[in-house]
Amino acid sequence: MRRISCIDLFCGVGGLTHGFVKEGLPVTAGIDLDPACKFPFEANNGATFVQKDVSKVTVSEIKQLFGRSDATVLAGCAPCQPFSTYAQRYAGSNHSGKWDLLYEFGRLAKGALPDVVTMENVPSVERHTVFRDFVKTLKKLGYHVWYGIVDSSQYGVPQQRLRMVLLASQHGDISLIPPTSRSPKTVRQAIGKLAPLKAGESHLKDSLHIAASLSETNLQRIRVSRPGGTWREWPDHLIADCHRAESGRTFPAVYGRMEWDKPAPTMTTQCYGFGNGRFGHPEQDRAISLREAAILQSFPKSYAFVPKGAEVQFRTLGRLIGNAVPVNLGRAIARSINTHLESVSFA
Q: Which residues are tagged catalytic?
């Protein structure tokens, strides 16, 4: 049996790591600057959480965390905010702020020379110099590099989520496995059996199954909203002033309900808010709960995000859940790595 050791950079709450663990790909450690990630990462994955800025991590630390292994995997999803469509103001400055984090990933790959490197990010990262430089760095080091934009719903994620996935190996060609789902998993299949809630209510046995409260106006709005519909169908007195303006007419998906028999929209860091996208429950007069958001990211229903009895903070957990790599996409990446490593010989 080969001893494989993986390190997850920018590990967050452990979406990618949990996918690896589920596929039998051992993760030694996850590294992230956010202390809120420590409990969920360690409680669900049996791996060590290192709270540290990746830019301050040394190559020797990475090698020490890998330990004595036959094969090593360096994985990570550098924070994607700089590459999103909402942050194109950064486009002229590839070396400012969070843009540098992908260069730090490249620095650690260059120094540690793992057998396999994998990265997940938003599709638009492909257009930026920092990504092209990352690929060039790997190729100069002798890695065989594959990358492509994949639809997460084709890999068992009940969500419309396009992502850039990169795989690179020192031992030959590598690529993502073909889609594993013949038909996308739907919202009904994912969350249809969860206990009903009212806006502002939480479940007695699951503190994460909690729905944000709604103002009286937003309660009226969601009551007249149909699954898949838009605010353009509301009575005139319920339409927000910002949507009456020309600049607001191009955002029909906000204040929308999900549809039972389709995948969910992309989960964002504000997916718990009815007014932040199509995050209204298909049937109940509320936004989806934090637990429902996590399940739509393909986390198991039992995934613990906070210690028992701890306060549940919407803003913090919404950010952590929305930023996570979907677990089932992580499983597909892990299966691809396992298949590849099983097919190659090591000197």
A: 80
